Amino acid sequence: MYKMYLVLGVLLAGLSVILGAFGAHGLKQIVQPDTLNSYQTGVHYQMYHALALILLGILYERFPNHFTSLAGVFFIGGTILFSGSLYLITSLKAMNKVIAPGIGILTPIGGLLLIGGWLLLLVGLLKK
């Protein structure tokens, strides 16, 4: 399990660099500054949680339990929902498309999963 978290963390980190560069160079010309700020928030949180997955992959060898394992699932799901929803909203705004009301709720749900991941990691570290 821990190797999967290491691999996913590295992939998500690399992708966040690519997305960050795209935001800094490509999106700047086609979206409003507030939209670009939201996009960059998604990039930052993706990088933070990619690094968290790498850390988790390292820690899991020493603290192998259900809580640390589940923390990784929460980090992955939270990153997809939180950052992914911000990327989707930015894309829709860039194409002048209507944003469905349900899309906006994905961001806070993803944020709650990220917070839950940190809490699960804490419990997993304290459990041993």
What does this entry look like structurally?
With 128 residues, the protein is mainly alpha-helical. It has one domain. Helix content is 84%, strand content 0%. It is built from five helices and no strands. The protein has helices at residues 2-25, 33-60, 66-94, 101-104, 106-127. The longest helix is centred in the middle third of the chain and has 29 residues, at 66-94. The mean pLDDT is 94.
Quick take:
The protein is mainly alpha-helical. The chain contains five helices and no strands.
- How much of the sequence lies in strands comes to under 5%
Termini separation comes to 18 Å
Helix percentage range: over 70%
Overall number of strands = 0
Q: From the helix content, strand content and strand pairing, which structural class follows?
A: mainly alpha
Order of helices and strands: HHHHH
Unreliable residue runs: none
Shape, please?
Answer: elongated
Number of helices: 5
In total, the number of domains comes to 1
**Could you report the average pLDDT, rounded to the nearest whole number?**
94
> What is the radius of gyration computed over CA atoms, rounded to a whole number of angstroms?
16 Å
> How would you characterize the largest beta sheet?
none
